[in-house]
Amino acid sequence: MNTHANPLTIGTVAKRAGVAIDTIRYYEREGLLPEPERRASGYRSYGEGAIARLRFIRRAKDLGFTLDEIRELLALSADRQHGVKAVKRRAQQRLVAIEQRIAELQRVRDGLAQLVASCPGHGKPEECPILRALGDDRVKS
Questions:
Q1: Which of 1, 40, 42, 104 has the largest count of CB atoms under 10 Å?
Q2: Which residues of the chain have pLDDT under 70?
Q3: C-alpha span between 75 and 77 (Å, rounded)
């Protein structure tokens, strides 16, 4: 419910939160952002809390959290008794997943670097070590 004296339009909220208008509508459909009140004209009417929540969502996404994880974080943020412990646990899980992804990307980078170094950059395509490696069924990813 919007109890603020100066209700904000969706465009103003989008600009101040640094997101697109369609993003706001999407988050409303996904239940990440409460449906706003409607003016008599039918236009959405937001309060300052919507901006704070959108910034929270954007920052959490920047840290690699999925929308489901963000939904959980938002719910946990209201849990005065167990919220902080659960938030830390969720952040630790995200950190482990990111570290695993970094290790995988480093492995991919190293493999690609080897292929690039082994390719002379000229000659027949069938002699290209990059193309041979990509077409070899025995190569494991």
A1: 104
A2: 1-5, 137-141
A3: 5
